[in-house]
């Protein structure tokens, strides 16, 4: 199928006409242009590629027609090492084809640190040239002892290690204790030494050790295989997949662990360190360029390492991958929602397949997709049924809000308040879960009943009281909390409605003035360091009541936490979203899994106005199998994923009438493909987003239909004006 699948050619001699994909959005089908090379090179090489007045990164994908002649522009080599493996090239090609994306944009994700390709300016490093006893002061002796046997380090690294000042280091050079030499600033630190990785199967439980052995064996076999590591919260899934990672490192290969929430990476780093004796290399958008450069270079050079990263880490050009792990594989954060709309979990499976390595999808609440794949024999299903150590599963119960409602403008019902009081009396911690950021999700003018909406989007503005602002969670718009109604101009009548975590915190401080509380949401916990601080405070018993959004549900271990109160278990149950029930079940199971993870038993109380709902009933009766069976049956009946396929086509632009006009033309051009249903056009649920109106189509088909081909031929027949954007969303996970 593929234009950039590697062709079997050895070295391409200089001056040969070649095809190159520049890392940018070119309209051509294969995204490639013809060039010449000024040096001999290989297919897969990354080259400096002139494009108009710019120079971009390009990928050499094959030979061009010889008749192209000598008028072609030349590309030049960055470095012979910077060459994508054939499987990586195939991977990029497949991703572009699967998501109907421009190959250049997919390549851009794999070359996301352009500065990594260029040589760094050298900087100055210092190394020891004397023994510690040659120094006169104890301080200097300590510095020498600390640096002895190390490669030259930069001044800032030495400062961080020893606390020495720049002037001390200079003086030590003058005195012949240290020498200054030019170095590359990013020489790789923290490299695993495979000799030092210990076996630890002995300390695993039987259940864990069986699973770990199976995974490690698959890594050693160097073949594609997919595993669904499906174990209850606290069963030790991380400990288990670490053994597969260990096997990869022992074989001198690279291990990639994709994490759903990189703000929580510090605890993860520490666990890696405890297991392996070195830290993983992190990868996410918040890193400095020089850190990213170092990881990217080590990836493409095949240096053995563990990379723990956000979804974009999947596009690192690993030369020597040994295993991929997707932790919390059910999480929707693995799905990118703008730019190239890819699902990192699905593409990780593809990547493992193309690279002939095993992949491990880990979760306590696997996605229906993965469960069905396991059932059909595509994945090996490994289950861990019990929690590690003394911990049992928590006890769950519903609080029926129609019987025991909270008071007016309060959100904690009497039974939940009692349970919190009891936990506090026994010096245990409680977690109140409410998946709503800010103070109140909506504000209303009491005089004209008008709701305050975003000027750019068709959504309500959310009150953030501590910041004194109204915020749009879609476009980032913010404004002062208004004293006058924008609609009827009445003063002082605007009233926040409903609770967010901030408002819940207010109620907690009124009801439990003695208790120390902390909010855990993405508005407060903005960096890994803040998350770490928060966890430390919880571990050191400096917090009695944690109030958190979904961020708190993800994989933390709080030993003294015994009570989880879910303030609104119905959130997310009412929606029309295909996955509403599944997501709710996953989230509530994960939150519940925070309770009672050590010796003391846990209790989970869920406040609800819909106690009979399927999700809640299966949760309190611990009937996962029943829930999954019912969910599968419903999807099967409706021919929805994972039994059918979906794709969305979204038009957006400033002029809604025009969008509808084009949408109707598109319907006229719909050629009626067998087995495919076209739904729409309809205004999107989020009709206005960032000042653009949106109109949606949904295509629904049987499992084996090539929807990509259907969409390509359909859209090829329609001229869409440049003022209108047309996005295709293959296997969509959100429908707003
Ligand atoms: P999961 O990912 O399944 O929720 P974790 O791997 O986070 O579970 O394990 C839960 C807790 O139990 C962690 O603190 C972990 O260190 C501990 N644990 C699990 N298995 C073992 C083991 N075999 N030896 C020591 N500690 C373990
Ligand atoms: Zn907005």
Mean pLDDT comes to 90
Portion in beta strands: 15-25%
Number of helical regions? 19
Q: Which strand order spans the largest sheet, edge to edge or round the barrel? A: 11-12-10-13-14-9-15
- Give the ligands present: adenosine-5'-diphosphate, zinc ion
Q: Evaluate the radius of gyration.
A: 28 Å
Structural class: alpha/beta
Terminal CA distance:
33 Å
Assembly of the depicted chains: single chain
The total beta strand count reads 30
Description:
With 736 residues, the chain is an alpha/beta fold. The chain folds into 6 domains: 95 residues, PriA, 3(prime) DNA-binding domain (GIY-YIG endonuclease, 3-Layer(aba) Sandwich); 61 residues; 184 residues, 3-Layer(aba) Sandwich (Rossmann fold); 177 residues, Rossmann fold; 56 residues, no CATH class; 87 residues, Ribosomal protein S10 (Alpha-Beta Plaits, 2-Layer Sandwich). 29% of the residues lie in helices and 23% in strands. Helix 14 links the parallel strand 23 and strand 24. The chain is globular, with a radius of gyration of 28 Å. The protein binds adenosine-5'-diphosphate and zinc ion. Zinc ion binds next to loops.
């Amino acid at each position: 199928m593929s234009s950039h699948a590697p062709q079997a050619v050895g070295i391409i001699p200089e001056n040969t006409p070649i095809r190159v994909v520049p890392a940018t959005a070119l309209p051509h089908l294969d995204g490639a242009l013809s060039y010449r090379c000024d040096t001999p090179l290989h297919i897969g090489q990354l080259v400096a590629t002139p494009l108009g007045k710019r120079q971009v990164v390009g990928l050499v994908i094959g030979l061009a027609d010889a008749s192209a002649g000598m008028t072609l522009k030349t590309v030049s080599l960055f470095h012979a090492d910077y060459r994508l493996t054939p499987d990586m090239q195939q991977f990029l090609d497949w991703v572009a084809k699967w998501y109907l994306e421009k190959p250049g944009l997919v390549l851009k994700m794999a070359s996301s640190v352009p500065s990594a390709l260029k040589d760094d300016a050298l900087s100055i490093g210092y190394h020891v040239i004397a023994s510690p006893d040659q120094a006169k002061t104890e301080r200097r002796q300590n510095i020498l002892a600390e640096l002895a046997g190390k490669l030259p380090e930069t001044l800032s690294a030495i400062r961080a290690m020893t606390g020495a000042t720049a002037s001390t280091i200079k003086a030590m050079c003058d005195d012949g204790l240290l020498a200054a030499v030019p170095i590359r600033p990013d020489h790789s630190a923290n490299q695993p030494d495979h000799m030092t990785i210990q076996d630890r199967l002995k300390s695993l439980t039987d259940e864990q050790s069986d699973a770990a052995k199976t995974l490690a064996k698959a890594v050693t076999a160097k073949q594609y295989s997919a595993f669904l590591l499906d174990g209850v919260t606290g069963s030790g899934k991380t400990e288990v997949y670490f053994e597969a990672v260990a096997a990869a490192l022992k074989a001198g290969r690279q291990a990639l662990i994709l994490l759903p929430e990189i703000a929580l990476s510090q605890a993860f780093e520490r666990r890696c360190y405890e297991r392996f004796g070195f830290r993983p290399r992190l990868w996410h958008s918040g890193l400095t360029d020089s850190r990213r450069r170092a990881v990217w270079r080590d990836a493409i050079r095949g240096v053995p390492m563990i990379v723990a990263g956000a979804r974009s880490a999947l596009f690192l050009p690993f030369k020597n991958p040994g295993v991929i792990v997707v932790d919390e594989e059910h999480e929707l954060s693995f799905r990118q929602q703008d730019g190239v709309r890819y699902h990192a979990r699905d593409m990780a499976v593809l990547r493992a397949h193309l690279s002939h390595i095993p992949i491990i999808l880990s979760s306590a609440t696997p996605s229906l997709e993965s469960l069905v794949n396991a059932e059909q024999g595509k994945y090996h299903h490994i289950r861990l049924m019990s929690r590690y150590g003394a911990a049992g599963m928590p006890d769950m119960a519903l609080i029926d809000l129609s019987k025991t409602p909270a008071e007016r403008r309060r959100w904690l019902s009497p039974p939940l308040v009692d349970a919190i009081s009891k936990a506090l009396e026994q010096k245990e911690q409680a977690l109140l879960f409410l998946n709503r950021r800010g103070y109140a999700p909506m504000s209303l003018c009491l005089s004209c009943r008008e709701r305050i909406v975003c000027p750019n989007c068709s959504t309500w503005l959310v009150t953030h009281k501590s910041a004194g602002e109204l915020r749009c969670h879609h476009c980032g718009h913010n404004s002062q909390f208004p004293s006058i109604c924008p609609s009827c101009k009445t003063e002082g009548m605007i009233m926040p409605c409903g609770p967010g975590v901030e408002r819940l915190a207010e109620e907690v401080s009124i009801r439990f003035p003695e208790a120390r509380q902390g909010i855990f949401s993405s508005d407060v916990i903005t960096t890994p360091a803040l998350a770490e601080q928060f966890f430390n405070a919880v571990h050191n018993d400096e917090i009695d009541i944690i109030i958190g959004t979904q961020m708190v549900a993800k994989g933390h271990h709080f030993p003294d936490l015994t009570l989880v109160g879910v303030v609104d278990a119905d959130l997310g149950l009412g929606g029309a979203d295909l996955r509403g029930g599944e997501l709710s079940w996953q989230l509530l199971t994960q939150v519940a899994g925070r309770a009672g993870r050590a010796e003391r038993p846990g209790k989970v109380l869920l406040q609800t106005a819909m106690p009979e709902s399927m999700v809640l009933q299966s949760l309190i009766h611990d009937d996962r199998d029943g829930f999954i069976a019912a969910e599968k049956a419903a999807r099967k009946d409706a021919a929805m994923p994972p039994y059918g396929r979906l794709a969305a086509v979204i038009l957006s632009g400033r002029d809604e009438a025009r969008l509808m006009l084009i949408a109707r033309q598109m319907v006229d051009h719909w050629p009626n493909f067998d087995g495919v249903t076209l739904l729409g056009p309809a205004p999107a649920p989020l009709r206005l987003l960032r000042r653009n109106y949106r109109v949606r189509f949904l295509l629904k088909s049987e499992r084996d239909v090539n929807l990509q081909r259907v969409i390509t031929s359909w859209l090829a027949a329609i001229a869409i004006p440049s003022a209108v954007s047309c996005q295709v969303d293959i296997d969509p996970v959100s429908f707003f």
